[in-house]
Design a protein that fits this description.
The complex is a heterotrimer of chains A (about 210), B (about 350) and C (about 350). Chain A has two domains: about 100 residues, Orthogonal Bundle (Fumarate Reductase Iron-sulfur Protein, Chain B, domain 2), CATH 1.10.1060; about 90 residues, no CATH class. Helices cover about 50% and strands about 0% of the residues of chain A. Chain A contains eleven helices and no strands. In chain A, helix 4 packs across helix 6 and helix 7 packs across helix 10. In chain B, helix 1 packs parallel to helix 2, helix 1 packs parallel to helix 6 and helix 4 packs parallel to helix 5. Chain B has a five-stranded parallel beta sheet, covered by helices on one side. A five-stranded parallel beta sheet of chain B has the order 11-18-12-13-14. Chain B has two domains: about 170 residues, 3-Layer(bba) Sandwich (FAD/NAD(P)-binding domain); about 160 residues, FAD/NAD(P)-binding domain (3-Layer(bba) Sandwich). The radius of gyration of chain B is 22 Å and the shape is elongated. Chain C has about 350 residues and is of the alpha/beta class. Chain C has two domains: about 130 residues, Glutathione S-transferase Yfyf (Class Pi), Chain A, domain 2 (Up-down Bundle); about 180 residues, Rossmann fold (3-Layer(aba) Sandwich), CATH 3.40.50.11810. The chains are: A mainly alpha (about 210), B alpha/beta (about 350), C alpha/beta (about 350). Chains in contact: A-B, A-C, B-C.
């Protein structure tokens, strides 16, 4: 018997009342959704399934790739005649999927581990989501030869624009102070992000 | 005549509702003063071509009203826009831009409606792309020169209609349904097909609201006889390509997949909003806070408006309604006015 | 909303700006932000303050669902706290995703004040700081929009093809998180935003309206961050590039750093993988950011402001406008020594 209380968790999210009100099934969200044009994905159907509130259906949905297609562009938001935000509902579904461990049942969901270990670690280790020393040209051939040149010669390339590069004090890609990083670290602890990361690691290891 | 005295009633608005009210009031023996901001009667009837559901000629209906108002005694004040009613004792004073233009024992407000301004839904490109038009625009074209729909001498290859433009839409600030746009879209789709049989006509709808007598039958006829295609999904966005054709993005919700379509013309079925020339009644809030339409004190018992007794509403100024509904409410308001005068 | 959105103007502060940088912009357009600061300080005489202790807003982490809502709210609260500590009320945000995130958080706090209180508690517990909401919060492109006429008055160049005398045909690309999330937070609303078209017309160019103008560039956050998902990202950019191609644009300008990066890089990738190019005469379309566009018309040296960090070469554009530059200084360092030349495999050489 399912005791995850998926529907209750979804409704408890602060974003829920804005994200998911009522749907007249006009389809303007799906019409404009870049993911709907690329994947077998329909945000309108997602909104309807959530509103039905069936635990089994929602459990299956949160265990599938379906909730990981959205590209977070929010093109759906200004169009919806009822004021729904499918893109924000997706964020809620993803959060519940991770917190309940269901995310490991889908290939796309399992990508959370890789993202946590790259973006997540970047944030706490550098204070940035992305850093030239951490966007390996080998992993990013699509960036082209100019990026390879920038990344491989970071000190001199970035140094041309700001002598403060990678140093303390204000400036381009400054070295963010240990005190500031300490603030971030404690914020991540107190607000439950570290707990989320532990869930991602532990569930992925199973 | 009532109690040997001639009682006076003012009707503001000379559209279908106002015309019906004026005719009925005169028939009941009241002295009628009839106002309209335009120099001619008829309201929107002047702009329509064929009326749903039976394709009656708007021109003929208008001529009928004009004939009947000529035949009886009604004082016409056309070209006078009454925008305020005040009370003095039990007399109702009519003002146009602070100038007194009349008084009466009872007033029927029948100021009608405006069409939703489609420029407010920018994603459809109305006012930006020439081949995006509204249903009233199309009605004008059908009435005056349908040839305008041809492009470079060729029949249009495809025309799409979008239902619910400016209705049922929080983004447009209008949450109600305008009731008559669906049947308008069905009627105009048929008219297009009659003019250009080889033109592909697609109606993009959310719900087909065909509630009136003959409406559902017309919907079926559109599909079976005229081969109009109905796709369930509101158009999300329209843009123009270099050939000035309109590209649409919608979802076919019954198939649950997005679709794109390129058409020669896009017709926006715009909803109905309160007229910009509404009448302010003393300092009373007589209109609905949400919709802006006039609201009677108790819709179940009559059309009397808040504040000073003796003021009644008729027609689409009280909410979206069809012409038969408007004329019926006009006749009914006249009766209410007569009863008010009798009982006071 | 009964607004004519295209006429909608929003409240943009005049001076005393607290500037927060963008992860993506710093990485991929390293000359851009210092250029923006220089324009504001030295060309417009404004006060711009950058706090060395500010961090990422965690927007990318938030939209890849590895940073939960309350964490990102608390990090944002910390940014506001730094602003309060330094005595500033006017926040200027470099990244568009950040701007959207700040907008979303301020809106959530407005409707759920108990949530704001909770976050204040977290911030105090974790850092001992307290915060106030900014009095004014805008994107960096809004500032340039506000002062577009002042910039036009001191501009050295126009966005005009020097040879033909015709205004350059410029595609404006607005980041999705600028106005789609809260149309009232975008100049001109969400359908036809005016923030970049205002710059383009003020500086002599003409704008291109093409069918996929409003389509997302395809960043997709997780769709780029994870290598296997990149097909989504490149496909969306391709849709845009194919749609704009018949209009023969001379230039693309984007206010979101991610969008600028993708529209620039994906043209390289599409040529490598498919052989497709979308510009005039079999060439690619140069892509610039809003501050780079300003820098170009104001006469800054192209290499000093970082145009060499673009994958699509800009030389042809500079020649069209009539800007002089020294090709030998393109790939040099601060001391003027050559750093090396990026490989040019199958790459167009201007």
């Amino acid at each position: 018997m399912n005791t995850l209380d998926i529907y209750t968790r979804i409704q408890a999210d602060p974003r829920y009342t804005e994200a998911c009100r009522s749907c007249m099934n006009c389809g303007v969200c799906t019409a404009i959704c870049p993911a709907a044009g690329y994947y077998d994905y329909d945000p309108r159907v997602i909104v309807n399934l959530v509103r039905e509130g069936d635990e089994e259906t929602l459990t299956d949905m949160l265990s599938s790739d379906l909730i990981w297609y959205c590209g977070q562009c929010m093109s759906c938001k200004p169009r919806c005649p009822r004021g729904n935000i499918p893109g924000a509902l997706i964020q809620i579904l993803r959060a519940v999927s991770i917190n309940t461990g269901l995310f490991v049942h889908s290939a796309l969901g399992r990508q959370q581990l890789a993202i946590k270990r790259s973006i997540g670690h970047n944030i706490l280790e550098t204070g940035y989501c992305v850093h030239p020393t951490r966007v390996d040209p080998e992993m990013h051939p699509e960036q082209g030869p100019v990026w390879a040149w920038m990344s491989n010669n970071a000190n001199r390339v970035y140094g041309r624009f700001d002598e403060g590069y990678d140093k303390s004090g204000p400036g381009l890609l400054r070295k963010i102070s240990p005190e500031a990083l300490g603030d971030l670290d404690r914020i991540f602890e107190v607000t439950g992000c570290k707990r989320l990361w532990k869930t991602i690691e532990d569930e992925s290891a199973k | 005549m009532l109690d040997g005295k001639k009682h006076r009633i003012a009707v503001i608005g000379a559209g279908p509702a106002g015309a019906a009210a004026a005719i009925s009031a005169a028939a009941m023996g009241m002295e009628v003063d009839w106002y309209d901001k335009e120099n001619r009667p008829g309201g929107k009837l002047n702009d329509y071509h064929q009326l749903f559901p039976d394709r009656s000629s708007a021109e003929q209906i208008l001529a009928d009203f004009e004939g009947r108002t000529e035949a009886i005694e009604i004082k016409k004040h056309f070209g006078t826009a009454v925008n305020r009613i005040e009370t003095d004792n039990r007399q109702l004073i009519l003002l146009s831009d602070n100038e007194i233009v009349g008084n009466a024992d009872s007033v029927i407000v029948a100021t009608g409606f405006d069409f939703f301004d489609a420029r407010l839904k920018e994603e459809f490109g109305y006012g930006i792309y020439n081949h995006v038009i509204t249903s009233p625009d199309l009605e004008q074209i059908l009435k005056t020169n349908p040839e305008d729909l041809r492009k470079e001498g060729a029949d249009p290859a495809s025309i799409a209609f979008v239902h619910c433009v400016g209705s049922r839409d929080q983004q447009a600030g209008i949450n109600y349904c305008s009731r008559l746009c669906c049947i308008t879209g069905i009627k105009q789709a048929i008219e297009i097909k009659e003019l250009f049989p080889s033109c592909k006509v697609v109606n993009f709808y959310i719900d087909i609201r065909a509630f009136g007598s003959g409406y559902e039958e017309l919907y079926r006829e559109a599909q079976e006889k005229y081969k109009v295609q109905f796709i369930r999904g509101r158009v999300s966005e329209a843009s123009e390509n270099q050939q000035h054709r309109i590209l649409l993005k919608a979802e076919d919700t019954l198939m649950a997949r997005p679709l794109k379509l390129t058409v020669d013309w896009l017709v926006l079925l715009v909803g109905m909003v309160p007229s910009c020339t509404q009448v302010q009644i003393d300092n009373h809030q007589c209109t609905d806070q949400e919709t802006g339409f006039y609201q009677p004190v108790n819709a179940f018992t009559g059309s009397r408006m808040a504040g000073q007794p003796g003021i009644f509403t008729a027609g689409a100024c009280g909410g979206p309604m069809s012409i038969p509904e408007a004329t019926a409410s006009g006749r009914s308001a006249a009766l209410e006015a007569w009863q008010y005068i009798k009982d006071r | 909303m009964k607004n004519y959105w295209k006429d909608y103007q929003k409240d943009i502060a005049e001076d005393n700006y607290f500037y927060v940088r963008s992860c993506i912009r710093q990485n991929f357009f390293p000359g851009a932000e210092n250029l923006f600061i220089d324009i504001l300080r030295n060309k417009l005489g404004k006060v711009v303050f950058e706090d060395a202790d500010h961090t990422t807003c965690t927007g990318i982490g938030y939209h890849t669902d590895i940073v939960p809502l309350e964490t990102t709210m608390t990090v944002v609260a910390r940014q506001f706290a730094l602003m309060k500590e330094k005595g500033y009320q006017n926040l200027v945000v470099s990244c568009v995703t950040s701007f959207g995130l700040y907008s979303e958080i301020l809106d959530l706090w407005k409707h759920q004040p108990e949530l704001k209180k909770k976050i204040a508690g977290y911030l105090a517990e974790a850092t001992g700081r307290v915060f106030d909401e900014p009095g004014n919060m805008v994107h960096a492109s809004d500032i340039l929009y506000k002062y577009r006429n002042e910039i036009a008055a001191i501009a050295k160049y126009q966005l005009v093809n020097r040879e033909t005398g015709e205004p350059l045909k410029i595609v404006d690309h607005i980041g999705c998180h600028y106005a789609k999330t809260f149309p009232e937070r975008g100049v001109g609303g969400s359908e036809f935003p005016q923030v970049l078209t205002g710059l383009i017309t003020a500086w002599g160019g003409s704008t291109v309206d093409y069918p996929e103008r409003r389509h997302c560039c395809g960043f997709g956050f997780r769709h780029y961050m994870v290598q296997t998902n990149r097909g989504y990202s490149i496909s969306q950019s391709k849709i845009k590039l194919e749609s704009m191609q018949p209009y023969e644009p001379d230039l693309i300008v984007a206010n979101c750093p991610g969008c600028a990066m993708f529209l620039d890089r994906w043209q390289y990738t599409l040529e490598e993988t498919e052989g497709s190019v979308y510009g005039q005469n079999g060439r690619k379309i140069p892509v610039v950011t809003h501050e780079e566009l300003a820098g170009i018309v104001l006469g800054y040296d192209p290499w000093e402001i970082g145009l060499q960090t673009h994958q699509v070469p800009v030389e042809e554009l500079l020649d069209k406008i009539g800007i002089e530059y020294d090709p030998d200084l393109k790939y040099t360092d601060r001391q003027g020594n050559l750093i090396g030349n990026p490989e040019m495999i199958n790459q167009q050489v201007c």
